[in-house]
Amino acid sequence: MQGVTRTYDDGQPVHALRATDLHIAAGDYVSITGPSGSGKSTLLNIFGLLDVPSTGSYKVAGAETVTCGQALRGAIRGQVFGFVFQSFHLLAGRTALENVEIGLLYGPHRRRKRRQLATEALERMGLAHRMLADPRQLSGGERQRVAIARAVTAQPRVLFCDEPTGNLDSENTEVVLNLLRQLNTDGLTVVVVTHDPVVAAQAGRLLQVTDGVVREA
Ligand code: ADP
C-alpha cells in the first residue's frame, strides 16, 4: 500500500489511519500490535479488502484494489485471502467437517472434492478424530483449529488473523501458534493482529500502530 489513509466521517472526521506505505512480501509473517483505538482493525480491514482506503493505492498481487470495483475486490478476497477471528465464527448445529466445507462453497469444487479437501484440512490441524463433532462440543482450542482449517482449505495465499488467541488459554495459544508457524513455513503469508506479546513475537516482522501511524518495530 502507498499513501493509504482511512478517515471515518463521524460528524467530525476521525483520522483512523494516517498516510501509510507498506509492502508485505509473499511468505512474510507479520504481527500488528498497538493500543485499543490505535487503528489496528482499520488497517486489517483494508488489508483484507473488507474496507476501502479514503486515499492512496493498495495493490494485491499487482492488481490495484482501490479503484477496481466491488466485484473484483470480492473475487480477490475470496481467492487470495483467508480469515481467522477471535470468536471463531463457527456454525452450531453443523459438524466441524461441514463448517470447514463452508470455506470451499464459493470455489470451483464439487461436493465430493469439497469433502475431501475439508477432511484433509482438519487432519492437518490434528482434528481427524473430531470431524463429526458439533462446535459446541469442542474446546476453545479445537474450535479455533476448525476455524483455521476452514480459512486455509481453499489454499489462500494470505491468512489474516484478528486476535486468534484472544479467547484461548496459554496451552491452546501454543497449539495455535505452532499451526500458524507451520502454515507460514509451508509458504502461507500470515498477518496477525494481537495484544499478546508472545503471539506478536513469533512473527518475523512487527508492525506497531499508534494513533493511526504504522511503524516497523
Ligand atoms: P483498534 O483496532 O486498534 O482498536 P480501530 O481501527 O478500531 O482501532 O479504530 C481506530 C479509530 O477509528 C478509533 O478512534 C475508533 O474510534 C475509530 N473508528 C473505528 N471505526 C469507526 C467507524 N466505523 N466510524 C467512526 N470511527 C471509527
Explain what you see.
- It is a single chain.
- 38% of the residues are buried.
- The protein contains seven helices and eleven strands.
- The protein has a six-stranded mixed beta sheet with strand order 7-8-9-3-10-11, with helices on both faces. The chain has a three-stranded antiparallel beta sheet with strand order 2-1-4, with no helix packed on it.
- Helix 4 (111-124) crosses helix 5 (140-152).
- It has a single domain (2-216), classed as 3-Layer(aba) Sandwich (Rossmann fold).
- It has helices at 40-47, 70-80, 96-101, 111-124, 140-152, 170-185, 197-201; strands spanning 2-10, 12-20, 29-33, 55-57, 59-60, 63-64, 81-85, 158-162, 189-193, 205-210, 213-216.
- Helices cover 34% and strands 25% of the residues.
- With 217 residues, the chain is α/β, with parallel strands linked by helices.
- The two termini are 18 Å apart.
- Residues 8, 10, 14, 16, 34, 36-42 line the site of adenosine-5'-diphosphate (ADP).
- The site of adenosine-5'-diphosphate (ADP) has 12 residues, from strand 1, strand 2 and helix 1.
What labels would you give this structure?
217 residues, six-stranded mixed sheet, three-stranded antiparallel sheet, Rossmann fold, alpha/beta, single chain, binds adenosine-5'-diphosphate
